[in-house]
Amino acid sequence: MRIAIDAMGGDKAPAEIVTGALRAAQDFGVGLWLVGDENEIRRHLPSQLPSNVDIVHSTQVVGMDEAPMQAHRKKKDSSVAVAIRLHAEGKAAAVLSAGNTGAASTSALFTLRPIPGIDRPGIATVFPTQKNPLVLMDAGANVDCRPRHLAEFALMGAAYARTVQNIIPGTKNELRADQLPTVGLLSIGEEEGKGNELTKATYKLLKENEALGLYKYFGNVEGRDIALGTVDVVVCDGFVGNVVLKVAEGFAKMFAGSLREALVRDVRSKLGALFLRPALLDFKKRLDYTEYGGAALLGVNGVCIICHGSSDWRSIYSAIRIAKQTVEADITGTIREAARHLPAARDKEPVDVDKAVIDRDASVPVASTMSLNEAASHSQSAS
Length: 383
Hints:
Blueprint: E1 2-6, H1 15-28, E2 31-36, H2 38-42, E3 53-57, H3 68-74, H4 79-88, E4 94-97, H5 101-112, E5 122-127, E6 134-137, H6 147-167, E7 182-186, H7 197-209, E8 216-221, H8 224-228, E9 233-235, H9 238-263, H10 267-287, E10 294-298, E11 304-307, H11 313-328, H12 331-339, E12 357-358, E13 370-371, H13 372-382
Parallel strand pairs: 1-2, 1-4, 2-3, 4-11, 6-9, 7-8, 7-9
Antiparallel strand pairs: 5-6, 5-10, 10-11, 12-13
Helix pairs in contact: 1-11, 3-5, 4-5, 6-7, 6-11, 6-12
């Protein structure tokens, strides 16, 4: 198995990307294509290149602040575009990038194309919980959704949940082979009638689609259920999902900072921290995003992992592990087969990738509020 790595993408590229990739190639037994400026990449490689690592030279790099459509159209030889083409051509089993999130998502949509029957590919983000890691779908790729789109997110999230639980630390009770992932619909109350028009209509559709045998439908869940791990998959539109992600990220940073201050406040606190060190390290590992690697763009014909823009080598290392496991579990094939049976697929309009929503902020592994059409308009006005 070979994985294509955008070696030039990210705030710490190519040094951290190359370091994480080399360690992953050694530990996971995967072959890697390091895509980018060959001279820059070789500066961070040993004199003797490992036999399972090769360099694919590209002449362009997409900046973190570049408009996605402009990058897609004008930088065909960018490291992210070349890496995704290697995947599309079958030379790589998966692709990974920590660069411009919007550019990576746009290139994946246009190059890999959506799976037949899936109208809106979405981003699956993993959350640590009191129980097992939880998949939030969609984390920002589509801010305006219809009920059938959320039904697709439920299907894809359920397919991904089992893979996530097999590779993320902190899983207490992994799903058995005969156990279906539990799906919950994010709303403002547990009762069926709670929520806006979208959630009310989606509730019925998710309940109907439970008969497909792909997941067990829990019903509505509230925001607090995410941290509690009430379900395996939480479904919402990308607007809500992105807000949830950003709020959680802010609280996590606040909690970590407050805890750090409390543990070094005085001598007694420092002594207590010393005794608590093993437990604190275990706690940190469960909450450390570097263990989660990146977010999967589900619904395209391939395995595309989008990493945090500030990823260090540990994040890249974990993301490659996730990519490998996702390929081995054939998540794409599972989604493709399941999508054939979606009742909502019978009356869809043709897939229009221009409706997808792409983020230009590569600091987080999600997309947010700029559509491809808007990005194209932005690019034209900026030209």
